[in-house]
Amino acid sequence: MAENLLELSGVHTHIAQYHILQGVEFAVPRGELTMLLGRNGAGKTTTLRTILGLWRASAGTIRFESADITQRETPDIANLGIAYVPESMGIFAGLTVQENLVLAARNGAPAGERLERIFRFFPPIKTFWHLPAGLLSGGQKQMLAISRAIVEPRKLILIDEPTKGLAPAIINNLIEAFAELKQTDTTILMVEQNFHAARSLGDSVAVMDSGRIVHTGRMAELAANEALQTKLLGLSLETHQ
Amino acid sequence: MIASLLSADFPRSRILAVALLAVFAGLALAPFLFPGTRPLDVAAKVCVFILLVASYDLLLGYTGIVSFAHTMFFGIGGYGVAIALSRMEVGWGAIAVGTAAAVLLSLALSFLIGLFSLRVKAIFFAMITLAVASFFAILASQLSNVTGGEDGITFRVPELLRPAYRVLEQPLLGVTVGGRFVTYYLVFGASLVLFVALLRVVNSPFGRVLQAIRENEFRAEALGYRIVVYRTLANCLGALVATLAGVLYALWLRYTGPNTTLDFAIMIDILLMVVIGGMGTMYGAVIGATIFVVAQNYLQEAMKAVSGALKGVPVLPDLFHPDRWLLWFGVLFVLSVYYFPAGIVGQLRARAALKK
Amino acid sequence: MKPIEGQRLDWAPLALLAAVGVAALALIGSPSTWVTLTIAGLAMGLLIFIMASGLTLVFGLMDVMNFAHGLFIAIGAYLAVSTLRLFSAAAGADSFLANLAAVMPAMLAAMLVAGLLGWFFERVIIRPVYGQHLKQILITTGGMIVAEQLIHVFWGPDLQPLARPASLRGAFIIGDMAIEKYRLIAVAIGLVVFAGMMLLLNRTKIGLLIRAGVENKEMVEAMGYRIRRLFVGVFVAGSALAGLGGALWGMYQESVTVHIGANMMVLMFIVIIIGGLGSIGGCFAGALLVGLVANYVGYLAPKVALGSNILLMVLVLLWRPQGLYPVSKT
Known about the structure:
heterotrimer; B: 356 residues; mainly alpha; two-stranded antiparallel ribbon; 2 strands; 73% helix; C: ABC transporter involved in vitamin B12 uptake, BtuC; two-stranded antiparallel sheet; globular
């Protein structure tokens, strides 16, 4: 078993009067891609946001590289080496593609081998380098959002539903990029509804329901066990390709 | 009886109840308790401002919107009767025409402003009302052939309201029962009736919806309430009452001018009164307006004494200069918003609730 | 995978400015009068831009509308009064350099004190009421009341004369055109401030962060930047610019009253609403539009002039309900 990069134990989060996370407990092993699955409204996005301090946990602890980050400010958490790709992508529409990446690269202008790799993964980034990001298509925006997360080495990348609303061809493009990214030592925690993507990319898996983790294990085991899929997710991965 | 009159919205604090009763008694008996021109002026101004501030509380405290155009509607009422009484034959008919025209103009304007800017953020509404109100004030001072410009309009009132008129030949309990007496009770009575009506509005189902919107816009919208419609209605209602307050004030002063109605300083006064008295309580208007108007008229003398005593000390005499009384109310206002958002009334109620 | 066709810059508002200028030339007839009015309009517009830019950026970045922004303008104007009085010998001298030696400290003092006051204001008045619009409006209005009264305490209630030094008075006569020197100076300073701001916003990382923060401040934080520090910086810089604008405006009008702040507040609100709340380019276009229209209409139809701002705002909002350059929020 690999060492854990990120550990959540007993995490509760309240948003206004609503009790969203009710004791979330799971770990993200270093160097792996962990899939966070679950129905709509299970608390997946809230979990990512709580890790990053965008919502404040009301109880429990979140440890990153064994350090307690539960009550830290969002910028401090990000500066530990965590990148975030929100579901909305968070593209700065009025800034050019280049300017978006300049902001994401905290230690100097984006350049060199990493930038070349981005261009190789996502050719439109190079093509539209000087174009305002707001003019990109949905798929291109997602490429830019992921590019921002990998423009510099990060220890952990939090990604919220990268394939949502995208055409199948682009989804395959993204899956290939993630597959190659996994060859490097990057750790990823990904929320995904697309089971094809989840099954082909995930190493380990955590399944949420009603603000709690109801299952953790290896992705391969879950993928092979249709009964368990139906029990946890209400439908099997096979029928939902 | 009292419960239905107050729409079952009680003071809920013994001190507050006593204070309200004292204000009520003082105003109801003002001609007898405080004879003399100036005290009666103060009492009439208190009546009008209680009404004006209460109608503003409907917007600020109950609906959660900040308008800087309330003095504009106040002014429309004042100019309405002033123009009618100075151009038409002096009489009750002119007052009715002037009031009706003013009310219609106010309703149309408040409806337009509401429709135009209430669908966006509260901040946008505040900015727009500020711009429109300042435009209206400039307009009134420029159209001097209609409004009298900076000088305003001095006008004659129906005979019954004239100071020289006598209802009774002999003084009643030592008080002359004449035109001023009648006018005062007209102002007092109308203010009282309209205040009770406002109390009824905020405690009606309509008022509850307004408060629900103020508390949680999204939730109210989800429950199916058309937020813009409710806010616009509240805006129109507030404007209507402010217009009527303007009519009453003009009749009392027999004069309407920029300095008594449209001045931005009066808008600031209203804000101070409603916040210090207590937003969203209605009774806060009574307490706030009374304290403020009395202070406006009598505090300056106290400050003159303090300032005189501090002579020779640098800066301090200037801080307590009689003209600086607004400074201290401003500080009180800021502290109120931070620490006592429900103002004096809220504090009194909280204390009463603790004792129970 | 082609992106949507589109231009980087939306030219329509700039075309509107040009159209207003051309239409005015046609209506006025006399080119020399038109030049005089246009320069007056540009001077007024650029001064308003200097004052209002901080207000709109602060709103864009932190969703804070400071109803006491006029206070910094008033402080700037009053400091100009005091500083020029202090350097009255230099201000009264018949030499441009000597005059400059009086005006420069006045401008610097106005910026410095307004900036410091802005820092204090952000910490004490605004910080506790983030995200609460109603309280923001009330508290900043309250701050304005108190500040106006304090100005009374320190400078007295009377109108303060603010005479421009000799070499900044008078006009250049070119043919049959008379162009006031001070207006040209105001235009020059305004353009320098605008150019500096554009360089900062487009060519520096801080500028990128400000632009990004206006769009989506959460994402900026998630990328590891402290938006609070950025905001304080913008607030202080905006206050300092308002102070500078106040000093320049005071010298423009050659007198200062305590109401200068509140009066400018209305004009600034109209400008930033026209421009699109939070948009610096919109603030620039809106300010020029307001300045030009005020001067043209003031000449063509003085009776309508006082309503021209409001009318302009209504027309612009009918055309573009979010203002000339709407800010996209994500």
